[in-house]
C-alpha cells in the first residue's frame, strides 16, 4: 500500500540503483533464456507450419540479424534442417545448389552458443570447415551479417597470411570459418589453441571434403576435436557411406534431402545443353560462343590451372569484346579475393576458372556456365552448373563433349536425374582462331610455354581419371589438339598406358653402354672383344644445343680451340717503319734488279705507288678532284673504287637509249661479266694468301727443327741456321712474293746480312730466369739464363727445357 503524505499526495517512486538494474536485467535475460530453451524442447521439427524464420524459437539477436539482412521465408532445406539442428541432432543435409544451405547451419550455430551463454573466456565453440577459400570467405560474410547483434567473436582462417598473426588472435575466437589444411596447421603448431570445449562442427560441401583430396587432413583434424559435439554436414550431393560417418563420429545422424523425390537434381529454372565438338575445335567453339554472348555474365570451367592461364592470356590478346578474368588455385590469396569481388560486381564479364569456384560460391546474376572440359563425374557437373539459376532465378548451362565422351557422360547425368538436351552450333557462328594462336605462340615464347603446359596438364588429367568409360585418352586426336593450341609440334607425353617409365628414362644410358657385338680372333683362341661405342663429352653435348644463344657458342669454342691454334699464331704481326735506304734496298728483288712499280694516272700527272697506303691515299676524293676534271661527281664503293653515280634520265633521253628490255639485258650481262671477273681475282688473291701462309708456317717449323737439333748436339741453333742458310735459302721464294698489305717480302727479309745484324732483334720470351741477362751475377753464385723463343707446346719442347735446367 503506497504511503500518502499529509496533504493527500502520493510519494514518488525510488529510482533503482545500477546494481539493482543489472540484477533485474540479468534476471530478465535468464527468464527469456529459460523460455527459449523450453520453446526449443517443445518444438516439433517435422511440423508443416514452419514456413518463416519467425515461426522458429530464435533469440532476439539472431532474429534481428535475419530481419536486417532481409531473410524472412525459409527454403526447403532450411525448414527441415534448422529445427533438427536446434534440437541438437547430427545433420546430413543434401539440397540443390543455391537453395540456402549456408543459413541452414549458421542459424543453429548462433543459437547453440547463445543458449550455452558462450563467452570469450570459453574458447572455441563452433568450427565451420570449407573446401575452398572463396567459399570460406562467403560463409564468413554471411555470418557477419546475420550475427551482427551477437557478442561472439568470429575469425576467418584460410591461409595466405602470416601464421603468427593468426595464432595471436586464434585463442579469443568463438566461431572459426576455415579450410582443412590451414586449420590442421594451427592445431599442430599453435601452442595456446585449445578445442576441448568445441560444441559444433560444420562441414560445408562435405562430399568434397571427405574425398581423397582432403581425407588425410580431415582425419588428422578430427582427432584433435572432442567426441561430445554436434556435427552437421551439408552439400548438394551428400555422401551416405558408413565409413565416412564413422570417421566423423556421427551419432544417429538425421539425413535430410529435399531433392530425392524431385524429378531433377538441378534447379528447374536451369536450362542445360551439351554440344558434341571434337577436342581440337573446343577453343574455336568457345571463342565463337563468347563473341555471340558479349552482353552476358559467364563462367568458363577448365580442368587445370595451366589451361586457365593459357586460355585467358590468348583470349585477352584476341580481344573478344568482353571483360576477361581468370581464377585458379595457384594465385595469391589477395589476387583471388580481388578477382572474386570484381566478377561479383560486374554486369558483363567472362571468368575462366578451375573447380575452386565450382562449389558453394555465390556469384550474383550469372547468365551462363560453360564447361569446356568434361567434369570428372556427375556430382562435379551439378556443382558447376549450380553457379547460375540460384534462389529460383533463371540460368543456362552448356557442356562441351568430345565424341568419345558423349555416350558415357550423358549416361552418368541421366542416372543423377539431370535433364540435359543436345544442341548444335550454327555454321555462321563458328570462328577459327588457329592462325592467330599459331602467330602468337611463334612471336611470344611465354605464350608458347603456357600452351605446352596446358596440353600436358589436360592429357594428364584425362589419363588420371578413374571413369575410363568416359575418358578415353587413346581416342583423342592429340596431334591436332596441339596444332590448334598454336604449337609447332606435339609435346612429348611420358605417361601413356603400358609404357615403362623407368625404361624410357634409362634409354639414353642404354644407348651409351658398350655394345654386344662380338668377333673372334684365331690367334687368341677365339676370344670375344667388345666394341666400345664412342661416348660424347659434356662439352660436345652442350655444343649440339643450338637453341642456346650463349653457352653453345662458348662450349663450341672450347672444342675447336685446338683446331684453330695454327690460325691464331698469325693473328698479330709486328710492323716496322723502314727508312729511305731500307726502302731503296727493299725495292730490289733477290738478284738486285729493281722491281716494277705500279703507276696511277691522275689527270695529266702520274704517281708511283710504292705502298698500299699510298695507293689508298691517291684514290681519295680530294686527290681525284685535284687532278681530274672538275664538275663530274663520282662515288666510291665499299672497296674504294671510284665510279660515276647512277643518275636518272629524262623520259626522252631514256627512249633514245633504246628499248627498255634491251637495256635491261645489256645491264645484266655487263654486271654478270664484272662479277665473274671479280670472282676470279678474289679466288687468285685468296689462293696466294693461303700459299704464303703455308710457306711461312713451313719455314718456322724448319727453323724450330734446326734449333732443336743444335741444342741436342751441343751447338747453338744459330750456327746450324747459318750453315743451313749458306747451303740453301729456304725463304728466297717467300721474300719475292707480295704480302697482303701491299709490301713485298723484300721489305722485311730482303735486306743484306750486315743490315740484318745491325737491325735490333726482337727480345726473346724467357720461360725461366733468375736474373736479367744484362745484369752481372751476384758474388758467390753463378746464374744462367735459359731463353725460349716461344712457350713449350710439345713433348720435345719440354725435354729441351728440362735438359737446359739440368745443365744449370
UniProtKB/TrEMBL annotation:
The Q motif is unique to and characteristic of the DEAD box family of RNA helicases and controls ATP binding and hydrolysis. InterPro entries: DEAD/DEAH_box_helicase_dom, Helicase_ATP-bd, Helicase_C-like, P-loop_NTPase, RNA-helicase_DEAD-box_CS, SPB4-like_CTE. This is ATP-dependent RNA helicase. It catalyses: ATP + H2O = ADP + phosphate + H(+). Gene3D superfamilies: P-loop containing nucleotide triphosphate hydrolases. Keywords: ATP-binding, Helicase, Hydrolase, Nucleotide-binding, Nucleus, Ribosome biogenesis, RNA-binding, rRNA processing. Its main location: nucleus. Residues 688-697 have a biased composition (Basic residues). Residues 17-39, 532-541, 664-687, 698-710, 741-751, 784-793 have a biased composition (Basic and acidic residues). It is an enzyme of class 3 (hydrolase). It comes from Phialemonium thermophilum. The keyword Hydrolase applies. It holds the Pfam family Helicase_C. It is found in: Nucleus, Nucleolus. RNA helicase. Residues 82-256 form the Helicase ATP-binding domain. Residues 282-434 form the Helicase C-terminal domain. The keyword Transcription does not apply. Its EC number is 3.6.4.13. Residues 1-39, 506-541, 664-795 are annotated as: Disordered. Belongs to the DEAD box helicase family.
